C-alpha cells in the first residue's frame, strides 16, 4: 500500500505527458515533441519496467505500443535533422529495454538508412556494444564493475546516484553503498545479509540492494536486525540502548566468532550459492 499512492501519482503525471505530446504532435510542432520526448524517455522506460508488475494487461499493451511508436518517430526525426549521436543514444536505450523484436529492428534500420546511409553504421555499432555486453556473464564482472553498470544504467534512466537532489538517485546511491557487505561479513562466517529489494528503483534496475528492507543475520544464533538504510550503520553503531549496532549487541562477547580469511571477498555469485543453505530460517522471516 505504501507504493500505491506514488504509483498512482506517476500514472497521473504520465497521462499528462502523453496528452501534452499528443497536442504538440497535432499542431505539427515536431521539433518540440522531439525535445520533450528525448528528455523524458529514460523515465518512460523506467516506468515501463515497473508497470510490468503493477499495470493491467490492457494498460501495459497500450503503453508499450505508444512507447514503441513514439520512440521510432523520434529516432527517425533525429536522423532527419542530422543528430546521429542522439539517434544512437535512443537506439541504445531501445536495445537495453528490448522494445523492438527482430523484424521491427530490421525494418527500422532499413528506414533510417534510406534517410542517411551513415545511420546504419552507427546503429550497427550500438548493436555490437549491446551484444558484447550480453555475452559477458554479469557474475563474471568484479563488484566494482557491477556497481558501475548499475550507476550508468541508473543515469541513463534519469536516476543519477551522484545527484543529491535526485530522490530516486539517492536510492540508487544507497543501494550501491549496500551492494558489497565484505567489510561486515569478513568479521564472522556465521554472518549473512538477506537482501529484500523493493520499490520502483529496484524493479527498474533489478538491483538486489536497492530499496526495500535488508536483514543482517547470525545464522548460528538466529539474531536478526533489519534496515531500509545503510547496512554499515546497522552493523556497527556505538549508540546507546536499543539503537546499538548488531556488532555491539551480539558479537562483542560471542565465543563462536569465526572470522573469515583475510583475503575473503563477497560476490553476487557467492550470495546466490550461499542463500539456499539458510532457506529454512529465511522462510520464517517472510512476514517480518
How would you describe this structure to a colleague?
It is a single chain. With 288 residues, this protein is mainly alpha-helical. It has 3 domains: 4-134; 139-175, no CATH class; 182-283, no CATH class. The chain contains 14 helices and 3 strands. It has helices spanning 4-26, 30-54, 57-80, 84-97, 102-115, 117-135, 143-156, 167-177, 182-185, 200-205, 231-235, 246-251, 268-274, 279-283, and strands at residues 191-194, 214-218, 223-227. A 3-stranded antiparallel beta sheet has the order 1-2-3. The protein is elongated and about 75 Å long. It starts with a helix and ends in a 5-residue tail after the last helix.
Overall mean pLDDT score? 88
Number of helical elements:
14
Q: What is the share of helical residues?
A: 55-70%
Low-confidence stretches: none
The strand count comes to: 3
Structural class: mainly alpha
The string of secondary-structure elements, in order, is HHHHHHHHHEHEEHHHH
Layout of secondary structure:
Layout: H1 4-26, H2 30-54, H3 57-80, H4 84-97, H5 102-115, H6 117-135, H7 143-156, H8 167-177, H9 182-185, E1 191-194, H10 200-205, E2 214-218, E3 223-227, H11 231-235, H12 246-251, H13 268-274, H14 279-283
Antiparallel strand pairs: 1-2, 2-3
Amino acid at each position: 500500500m505504501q507504493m500505491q499512492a506514488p504509483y498512482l501519482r506517476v500514472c497521473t503525471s504520465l497521462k499528462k505527458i502523453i496528452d501534452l505530446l499528443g497536442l504538440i504532435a497535432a499542431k505539427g510542432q515536431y521539433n518540440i515533441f522531439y525535445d520533450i520526448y528525448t528528455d523524458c524517455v529514460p523515465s518512460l522506460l523506467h516506468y515501463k519496467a515497473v508497470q510490468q508488475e503493477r499495470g493491467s494487461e490492457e494498460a501495459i499493451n497500450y503503453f508499450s505500443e505508444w512507447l514503441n511508436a513514439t520512440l521510432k518517430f523520434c529516432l527517425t526525426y533525429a536522423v532527419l535533422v542530422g543528430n546521429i549521436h542522439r539517434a544512437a543514444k535512443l537506439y541504445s536505450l531501445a536495445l537495453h529495454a528490448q522494445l523492438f523484436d527482430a523484424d521491427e529492428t530490421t525494418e527500422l534500420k532499413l528506414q533510417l538508412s534510406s534517410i542517411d546511409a551513415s545511420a546504419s553504421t552507427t546503429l550497427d555499432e550500438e548493436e555490437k556494444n549491446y551484444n558484447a555486453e550480453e555475452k559477458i556473464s554479469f557474475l563474471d564482472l568484479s563488484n566494482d564493475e557491477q556497481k558501475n553498470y548499475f550507476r550508468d544504467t541508473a543515469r541513463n534512466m534519469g536516476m543519477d546516484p551522484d545527484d543529491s537532489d535526485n530522490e530516486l538517485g539517492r536510492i540508487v546511491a544507497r543501494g550501491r553503498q549496500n551492494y558489497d557487505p565484505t567489510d561486515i561479513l569478513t568479521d564472522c562466517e556465521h554472518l549473512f545479509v538477506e537482501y529484500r529489494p523493493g520499490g520502483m528503483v529496484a524493479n527498474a534496475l533489478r538491483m538486489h540492494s536497492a530499496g526495500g528492507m535488508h536483514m543482517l543475520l547470525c545464522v548460528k544464533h538466529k539474531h536478526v536486525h533489519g534496515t531500509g538504510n545503510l547496512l554499515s550503520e546497522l552493523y556497527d553503531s556505538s549508540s546507546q540502548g536499543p539503537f546499538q549496532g548488531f556488532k555491539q549487541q551480539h558479537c562483542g562477547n560471542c565465543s563462536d566468532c569465526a572470522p573469515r580469511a583475510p583475503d575473503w571477498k563477497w560476490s553476487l555469485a557467492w550470495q546466490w550459492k550461499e542463500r539456499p543453505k539458510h532457506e529454512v530460517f529465511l522462510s520464517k522471516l517472510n512476514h517480518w
